[in-house]
Amino acid sequence: MAEPVIEARDIFKSFRIPSVRRETLREHVLGCFRPPRVQTLTVLREVGLEVHRGETVGIMGRNGSGKSTLLKIICGIYEADSGSVVVRAPVIPILELGVGWNPELNAVDNVMILGTILGMTLGEARASIEEILVFAGLEKFANLDVKYFSSGMAARLAYSVAFKAVRDVLVLDEIFAVGDAGFKARCEERYRSVSAAGCTVVLVSHDPKTISTFCDRALLLEGGRVVMNDTADSVAKAYLSISSRAAEDGAFG
Asked: 49-76: b or e for each residue (b if 16 or more CB lie within 10 Å)?
């Protein structure tokens, strides 16, 4: 079998969080003379992941399970504390919508900026402006400054640029939760064409139907560990079971 496009081994990641809140001027002044107290929050523990060319791999888990942190490590945004990550193809990440926008520029200018950030040439980005705006349903707002966009409009525009820019690997966070029914249908159709073209996709979602429908297999994260690596259907059912038990116990993670 060919080498994985994405290969992560024994990933650990922790964050140091201040354990003392300073709200008054006196607390801030006195705090300058005391060593800060912090607590360590371990988000990922011994996490491994392999994604092969042309696969769509889903990642599920309750809030706080480490999904977004794992995606950011794969995309090079965070560095793991230990372990190794090898990515053997260019990655198009859409994780935090609106990152890369210049709010003082209009939609057309921002498509050019984000498109080139994501690897398109100036010519490709310029030639794709109309298609991207139509896909996002924003052609009437081409000359409107992005600062006046709603969060939903900005999200649709970001995903539209990403779908056009993708070449090898696409990393998406809750793609099918954005926009109205028409936009979701366009995203599903574009996803199928991207997958049929042999692109590799890593998809995070809380929606079992999305994982079952679009993923070849999936991982389930719980407490920062991979507790399941199986077919998409099996992982979706296990996620529903864990979420139901947590709701019954009053644990909303």
From this structure: bebebebbbbbbbbebbbbbbbbbbbbe
- Name the pairing type of β-strands 56-61 and 6-18: unpaired
Residue 84 has pLDDT above 60, yes or no: yes
How many C-beta neighbours within 10 Å does residue 200 have?
A: 24
State residue 245's pLDDT score.
80
244 vs 253, residue with greater confidence: 244
Tell me what percent of the residues of the chain surpass a pLDDT of 70. 86
Q: What type of residue sits at position 180? A: D
The pLDDT of residue 37 is 73
Please spell the DSSP secondary structure of 24-63, one letter per residue: SHHHHHHHTTSPPPEEEEEEEEEEEEEE-TT-EEEEEE-T
Residue 231: phi, psi to the nearest 5? -60, 155
